[in-house]
Structure formats: structure tokens, C-alpha cells
Amino acid sequence: MRQSLKDYICSEIIPRYAAFDKAHRQDHAQMVIDRAMSMAKAYDVDEEMLYVAAACHDLGLAVDRKTHHLESGKIIRADERLREWFTPEQIETVAQAAEDHRASATTPPRSIYGCLVAEADRMIDPVTIIRRTVQFGFAHYPELDKESHWQRTLDHLQEKYAEGGYLHLLIPGSPNEAPLAELRAIIRNREQLRAIFEDAYRDETRTIRPALEEDIPSIMPVLDAAKGIMRASGNMGQWVDGYPSQEVILNDIRSGHGFVVADSGAIVAYFAFIPSPEPTYSYIEGGAWLDDTLPYHVIHRIGSIPGAHGIFRSIMDWCSGRDGNLRIDTHRDNVIMQHCILCYGFRYCGIIYLANGDERLAYQKISL
Question: 221-233, pLDDT tens digit by residue?
Fold first, then answer.
């Protein structure tokens, strides 16, 4: 693939998704690209055409939600820059692929490019689909109460994904076959579906705000509870000798770097979100940062109370919305945190050393 084309897509196309709803942000565009390119290995296709079709498939959301697939085709045809790499005929095929990707379409895609983009766009992860259904409801129907959101979620899942729904798989042996069967089983099990809905609804109503000095009496017990979780899981060497102290938290707050997570107004978690440079990250051993040239943010001092589910994801979603280049480190014995970090898509980069000489495992995630 020509680097000039890739640079154009990464710098001019993907960033447009930042203005869309949570279910159609930059991570969604990148996921469709990755899945389409992976499935394409079994077919004779022009990878550059497929790459552009996947990258541009939802651009029409900037114009109109209901006809966004058609608007995406118009945007592709009107993009003069694409003529640097493609013939008019190729651009038309790419535009048609974007137009044909919508799951509710009554006719099949006109080319293999449309099939691949449409199939990649399905991205059937059961929990993610349910969460995105709830997120869409909050974005477009904010006036609904909780039970109305629940009913809207049920109606949408039944109409689109259940047996007899309008979603159909387009690629034989699609990687979506097993996940779709799993999702349909969840839709049939209303108790399981309601539990997933409750988690998603809580996350959408959860708030993250700058910590205030008057929050410190509520923050310190949260951090003490987090230490208890560490000790119970066998992590005996992290957050010792009174760390993080009230003075550390006060410094975070006065620097504008301390934040609290609140459920129904009650503080359930704390973290620090600090802009680069992080002095202890200047040297890394046994590896390298994914990119050591761009500005970044560091997440430090994550702590939450027991029973506050989904805290790490809530914090990382919030941080990712403010910087696409994130770094984090944790203690070797903090197996729970390592699992959360890797599950969110961070890459292990190596070992860094704190000012006192203690080692930490370092990770980075770039989603610019």
C-alpha cells in the first residue's frame, strides 16, 4: 500500500469520526479497516480500494444519519484527492461499497468490496453491540427514562439481530457466525441481557469530573479500599509506606490533574491524568515505546471501591476522548491491572523505573 494514501487516510479521513456518536468514533473506523483487510486475504481484491472504502464508509454521518451510507458515497466521489491514487472507475466502486454497507439494505452489495466492508462493519461482539445500542439511545434520545431505554434496546436488538432480524451475513464462513449465535442466545435470555444493559446504562450515567480539594475526605477512603483489593489479590509491594498520600492527591488536584468518578453523585474512583513528559518514562528497558515522538498523557493512581464495576473502561474511554496517545504503568504483582490494561488494547512496551528505583511494567496505546 502506498504510504502517501495511508497518510492521507490517517490524517484527513479517520479524524472526522471524532465528531460522531460513541458507536462510530475513530476506533470503530479502524476496526472496520482491520477486519475488512483481514477477511480480504481470501479474495482477489485491490487492498488500497478496500482500505479507502472501509475508512470512508461512515463519513456520511456528518450529513444525515438515516442516509449516511448514500452520503458517504457522495463524499467519496467528490474527494479530489482520491484521484491521485485511483481511476474514476475505481472511485465509483469504492463509493458503491460505502453505499452498500448498511445492514438494513434490502439488496445485496454490488461488489466484493461492498460485501467485505458490510461484513467488517457488523463486528459482532455481543456485549459491545448491546453497549453501543444503549450509547446510541443516550446520544439520540436523551429524554428517555431508564425503562424506555431498556425497551428501545430490546426493540432494536430484536429487529436487527434476533432470529428473523434484518441483519444477514454476507461472507461464507464469516468470523461473525459464532458471535451472532452467541448474541441471539443472550437476546433470548432476558435476565442476562438485562444485566448487560444495567452495566451499560450505569456507565452512560456515570460522571467523571475534576477533583476538588473538598473531595479529599471522600477520595482517601477510596484509595484505601483500592489498597485492600491489591493486598487481597497478592499484590503486596505496590502503594506502600503511605502512598499515595493526601499530599500527593492534593498536588494532583492543584495541578489540575486529579479526577474523580462518581456514580449517582457518590465518588467511587480516583485517577490522575497527566500530560507529557513523564520523567520516569525517558528510559525504558527491554523494549521501546510504540511512538516516542508524539505528545501523550499518562494515567496514574487509579483506585476504586469494591463493587464499582467497569471503572477502568470508563476511565480509559474518558481519557481516550481527550488524547489518542496514552501511557500507563503498573507493578509486576498487580495482575488485575495488567489484565485490564491489555484487554483495553494497550501494548506492553518494557520496564521503566520510578524515581526511587522501583520497576514498573509500561504500556502504551495509540489511537490517533
Answer: 999 999 999 999 9
> Do 358 and 218 reside in the same domain of the chain?
yes
Domain finish residue from 205, 233, 260: 205
Domain that holds residue 77: 3-122
Q: Which of 103, 122, 141 is the last residue of a domain?
A: 122
Q: Give the confidence band of 207 by pLDDT, cuts at 50, 70, 90.
A: very high
Q: 329 — phi, psi (to 5°)?
A: -140, 160
Q: How many CA atoms lie within 13 A of 311 on its CB side?
A: 23
Confidence of residue 202 (pLDDT cuts 50, 70, 90): confident
Neighbouring-strand partners of residue 326: 297, 365
Close Cβ partners of 251 (under 8 Å, ≥ 6 residues apart): none
* Contacts of 187 by beta carbon, 8 Å cutoff, 6+ apart: 157, 158, 161, 162, 193
Strands 297-304 and 325-330: parallel
Q: Is-contact 350 285, C-beta < 8 A?
A: yes
Give the burial class of 338: count Cβ atoms within 10 A of its Cβ; 0-12 exposed, 13-18 middle, 19 or more buried: middle
Residues 220 and 187 in one domain: no
pTM of structure: 0.59
Q: Give the whole-angstrom CA distance, residue 288 versus residue 245.
A: 31
Give the pLDDT score at 203. Answer: 85
Q: Phi/psi of residue 209, each to 5°?
A: -145, 165
Q: Please state at what angle helix 68-78 crosses helix 88-99, rounded to 10 degrees.
A: 170
Amino acid at the residue 208: I
Domain count, the chain: 3
